[in-house]
Predict the structure.
Amino acid sequence: MPTSTDLAAALLPLVGGPANITSVAHCMTRLRLGLADPGKVDGDALRALPGVLGVVEDDTYQIVLGPGAVSRVTADFEALLRKETQKARNATPLKRALRRVANVFVPLIPALIGCGVLAGVNGLLLNLGWLPSLTPALAAIASAFMALIAVFVGHNTAKEFGGTPVLGGAIAAVVVYPGVAKVTAFGVTLAPGQGGVLGALAAALLGTYVEKWCRRWVPGTLDVLVTPTLTVLVSGLVTLYVLMYAAGAVSTAIGTAANWLLATTGPFAGAVLGGLFLPLVMLGLHQALIPLHATLIEQQGSTTLLPLLAMAGAGQVGAAAAVYVRLRHDVDLRTTIKSALPAGLLGVGEPLIYGVSLPLGRPFLTACVGGAAGGAFVGAFAMLGERVGATAIGPSGWALFPLLAGGGSGGLGTAAAIYGGGLVTGYVVGFGATYVFGLPREESEAVTGQ
């Protein structure tokens, strides 16, 4: 009989290769594949493979492998599929790691946005004293997801790293279970939620490795019973006595550092964050910030980083507008700007980055200058005690207004005014810097007729 790795490698080309796979799952005995084109499958060759007990063609393509074996083959198949997909993308190890972290958190963004908007509406109703009978219900709806976000992070982590998603969720659920208040680690009584999303991520990742180890060593006849039990037990104990304490310290440090930076170096911190975010987006490194945003939202109710980072988009919009005004002779580029500018105003910057500023070179740098100016504006008010936060991640630009939260005495109205002022600053400085410095000499001469 072939090993699970050999069998997975043999299966992949027979089902049409990585490009033909749209989903991978398994039940007790069958590997279930979603296929873009079932006609690419070589069914006869599949049935002839040692280790394949049969094939069922249904809404998913089902390869019968038997209990125990199916879990090991599925894990190896998913690992091989990821490896081949990554080769096709020609990604660096850092980008692959960041992409995998992003794959854990990005599916959560719709819920974060929906709950964030509801939290903002509820806060407004509370401040105005309106609908007092409704606000408790809105508070419950808006807060429930954040209270259990660790479970969803655990589920997605296990799914992304080749484990069983429900086991990842079960392990991460330990982090938010109220009963952890009876557990003491390193002489400190644990608190439910301690470690937050970082603890859940670490716990589920550990659980995935424990599960994979069990799949390799536990006999197939005992796999269904022993592997889940050991996975939850070992990972749960390590989560309680090590990971929650450690992740809690890291989460606290993140919140403390963010507050300290804005309180003591507000304009400088804002300029750095607003100025460097476009290069991070270009390199794909901005994905590393998603867990930080989620940690701050979970810990403090909002992330003060996102409004600062959103200023990069404002600088980009200003730079694109300047290019549109200066390069009147370039009809194709002006058409690109007109089509991409509305998305840029709503915080979707990639069309402007890759279609306008980056190909031209200098406008990309002057867009960063505009972002730095907007970030410094918002950061200056944070230093004065008026911090602007966002209750969810995902949108930026004008789309972030419904998600804003005030962290000072001025409340939501002041936060919206500061954020709006930052956007205007980014637009103006990005436009001015690009108009004066952002175009090569030959482009300027072509425009002015010199």
User: Anything to note?
Assistant: Residues 445-450 have pLDDT under 50 and may be disordered. Residues 220-283 form the longest helix (64 residues). The longest strand covers residues 21-26. The radius of gyration is 26 Å.
